[in-house]
Amino acid sequence: MELRQLRYFVMLAETGNFHRAAERLNMSQPPLTVAIRKLEEELGAALFVRSARGVTLTAAGRASLDMARATLAQADRFREAAHEGAVGERGRLRVGFIGSATFELLPRIIPEYRHRYPGVELVLEESTSVEIARKLVAGELDVGLVRLPLTEMAAVNTTAIDADELHAALPASSPLAQAGIVPLQALAQEPFILQSRISVLHTVTLSACHAAGFVPIVAQEAAQLSAVLALVRSGLGVALVPARAARSVPQDVRLVRLADRVPIETGVALPRTVADPLARNFARIAINSD
């Protein structure tokens, strides 16, 4: 049984006449007659009673007409879903993001993406940049918002979408917390809270301290930026964090600008192999967002 046979059956049932049905189907009558006869033979039941004035449905025809219509409608929905999936308008998109992306990037990108692609299910996963890159390569994520530069870039493509800089995160009780600007060298004797070693911010912080002429005293490491700020709040040490974190800094923590600017960037990352249309659409919105 083929969909075209069901389409012929429904049209003939609606018109009640082979000639009119053939006209509406843009075909000649003989092939339509043959197709309906073959359908009836395959079903083992007559669907129409033929007469000189046209055709009427048999009991089998009446019983199957609604099912035929539903099957054709389902086939149309299938075609539509396949098309929407091919152009990135339907499906499931797995997005990895770093913690600092929640401050501005995600609120900037997600509403626009949902507005343009309401048929896509978004699955968001917070992680480190390096882990996001690894999951993109493994096919466990489709697109990522990562800190640049990535230390593992061999199999992912990245595009910078947001510029920021590091600020010193200090306990509010620290004398330096009241300053409008602080030299990084002034923190040389302070214990540092770093993000874990697989974080890009870990490497950037160490490099900035080395450039300022000292090796930081590492008191603690934490996997996520929120944990780093919580440890600063508890008085365990200081940290270098993105300036955009100012919007989510906990009580009793102050962000102070560094005298020697330490620029950082956030980028959108896609697998270097084959990025699906959903991921490409997300990346395009991320790149073009203001």
UniProtKB/TrEMBL annotation:
MF-aspect GO terms: DNA binding; DNA-binding transcription factor activity
Gene Ontology CC terms: protein-DNA complex
Protein name: Transcriptional regulator, LysR family
Keywords, in A-Z order: DNA-binding, Transcription, Transcription regulation
UniProt key word Acyltransferase: no
Coiled-coil boundaries: none
Organism: Sphingobium herbicidovorans (strain ATCC 700291 / DSM 11019 / CCUG 56400 / KCTC 2939 / LMG 18315 / NBRC 16415 / MH)
Pfam families reported in the protein's UniProt record: HTH_1, LysR_substrate
Domain HTH lysR-type, first and last residues per copy: 1-58
Top-rank lineage group of the source organism: Bacteria
The family this protein is said to belong to: Belongs to the LysR transcriptional regulatory family.
UniProt keyword annotation of DNA-binding present: yes
